[in-house]
Write a structure and sequence with these properties.
The chain is mainly alpha-helical and about 500 residues long. It has 18 helices and four strands. It is about 65% helix and about 5% strand. Strand 3, helix 17 and strand 4 form a beta-alpha-beta unit. The two termini are about 40 Å apart.
Length: about 500
């Protein structure tokens, strides 16, 4: 009982951290295209760029000082209070921009949601109390008056505080870079990525600081701390050469998607299967960042997704070789450590579980039944020991946990794949299942979204097992399926067989 309480508490903390991280990155992720556009313009037209042009270079400063922070403030506001929140969020963000002399990304991430929250509280307080015919008047003037007050507050009070905080953070980063200490950041970053905090770290924390540095120096190493594809490709290559079973079979496809497609979430399950491999990605990450630091590497804008193609595109003129050197050394070290750990590990129960789950899936398909799944769920509800059933039987075979009832075929109209940002692993999984459903003659809709955007009419929600708790909170009435591997999960065929 005490162990269960500790597990629940730990799970609650993890879910809370993931939600907060998702909120931070959610303000930046939808605007990544604009950041990349700014990076391309910067890389091409500044005096040290590929095609210097003093006239076109005039775009660089206004975009990073005005457009990008306003976009972040508007997006943060819409996350809190939809369109009205976005408008007042952009308005308050403008106050903090004009009140300072540096790009106000951190300020926008504070002011956007804050302004929207204040307006939301006002709207709640007057809800149902406005006389008919005066709704538009009250709505427009309330936003205008509150927005004007918050804009003045941001200009005169919040702006200088955020500017000083940004200065301290920049000085701290500069100290780490100058003393070759910044590689130590990967000791924390790599384990946090495996807990699906990668977008929160990269776009919620590192990118705002990196953009300020890039606006001053033309590049930043911070863009590469989390996004380096080297550590992940090293792990996947090790599985390809010395791995076993289904993990080895799927590693080659995962390597292509990770390295060229930039979807880093694809390699997380391979580490979760053998947690010792976290040492490999830490070693690779530290080595890569140390190489970046030694050669003075940096990118001009966020490489999103973290593909090798994005790295090449965002490298400054004359800076491609240092960038590729860090990716290469990270991959080599990660591969060497991963291969050693995989070779020296015994064939454990987890390896057997993968094969057993596949056999169980084939038996279920042959029987044409989902009774086994429902029975497993009932056993879990009754308090049966989960340790007696392989973990992958609950996950990759598609069996449901106690909190998720299996829906009948007739009740399923929409299947939703969901991940942290709704752009990477979930898009890939949805594409795979959509093709399988179409081949089976099913007209069930299959889409992908961020967890925070799961629609109310979702009948089945598919997530990585570490994100399922968050998905249940968002869609409590849906059936939830947890998987380990978006690229090759037995749950896909089980689901197709059951519904189509």
């Amino acid at each position: 009982m005490e162990h269960a309480q500790r597990s629940a508490s730990s799970g609650g903390i993890r879910v809370g951290v993931q939600k907060f991280g998702r909120f931070l990155s959610g303000m930046v992720m939808p605007n990544i295209g604009a950041f990349i556009a700014w990076g391309i313009i910067t890389a091409l037209f500044i005096p040290t760029g590929w095609a210097p042009n003093s006239e076109l270079a005039k775009l660089v400063d206004p975009i990073i000082k005005y457009l990008l922070p306003v976009l972040i403030g508007y997006t943060g506001g819409t996350m809190v209070h939809k369109t009205r929140g976005g408008v007042i969020g952009a308005l308050m963000t403008m106050g903090i921009i004009v009140g300072t002399d540096i790009p106000m990304f951190l300020g926008a991430m504070i002011c956007g949601p804050l302004a929207a929250w204040v307006l939301k509280q006002f709207d709640k307080s007057v809800e149902g109390k406005i006389k008919a015919g005066f709704e538009m008047l009250v709505n427009n003037f309330s936003l205008g008056i509150i927005g004007a007050a918050l804009t003045l507050l941001a200009y005169s009070g919040i702006g200088p505080v955020i500017e000083q905080l940004t200065s301290w953070l920049s000085d701290g980063v500069e100290f780490l870079v100058n003393h070759n200490l910044i590689p130590l950041a990967n000791v924390l970053i790599e384990p946090a990525k495996i807990l699906f905090l990668n977008n929160a770290i990269n776009h919620g924390v590192l990118s705002p600081i990196a953009l300020d540095e890039a606006s001053r120096t033309g590049k930043s190493i911070l863009f590469m701390l989390e996004s380096n594809p080297g550590p992940g490709i090293g792990v996947l290559l090790a599985y390809m050469f010395v791995g076993r079973g289904s993990a080895r079979q799927s590693a080659s496809g995962a390597a292509i998607i990770h390295f060229f497609g930039g979807i880093h979430e694809i390699y997380f399950p391979y580490i979760l299967m053998n947690p010792r491999l976290i040492l490999a990605v830490i070693a690779g990450g530290v080595t890569g960042t140390f190489t970046f630091s030694i050669f003075g590497a940096g990118l001009v804008a966020p490489p999103s997704p973290g593909s090798i193609f994005a790295y090449i595109a965002m490298a400054p003129k004359g800076g491609l070789l240092p960038v590729l050197s860090g990716v290469l050394t990270a991959g080599i070290v990660s591969f060497a450590v991963s291969a050693l750990l995989l070779k020296t590990s015994k064939k454990n129960a987890q390896d057997e579980d993968i094969e057993e789950a596949q056999s169980r899936m084939k038996a279920m398909k042959a029987a044409g039944t989902t009774v086994a799944a429902a029975g497993a769920a009932s056993a879990a509800v009754a308090g049966a020991s989960r340790s007696s059933i392989p973990d992958t039987a609950f996950v990759d075979a598609g069996l449901q946990t106690a909190a998720s009832a299996v829906k009948d075929k007739e009740d399923v109209r929409k299947i939703v794949f969901s991940c942290d940002a709704g752009m990477g692993s979930s898009a890939m999984g949805a594409s795979i299942l959509r093709k399988k459903m179409k081949a089976a003659g099913s007209d069930i809709t299959v889409i992908n979204t961020a967890i925070s955007d799961i629609p109310d009419d979702a009948d089945i929600v598919i997530t990585h097992k570490t994100l399922t708790d968050r998905a249940r909170q968002k869609a409590p009435n849906a059936e939830h399926i947890s998987i380990d591997n978006f690229l090759k999960s037995p749950a896909y065929d089980v689901l197709v067989n059951r519904l189509a």
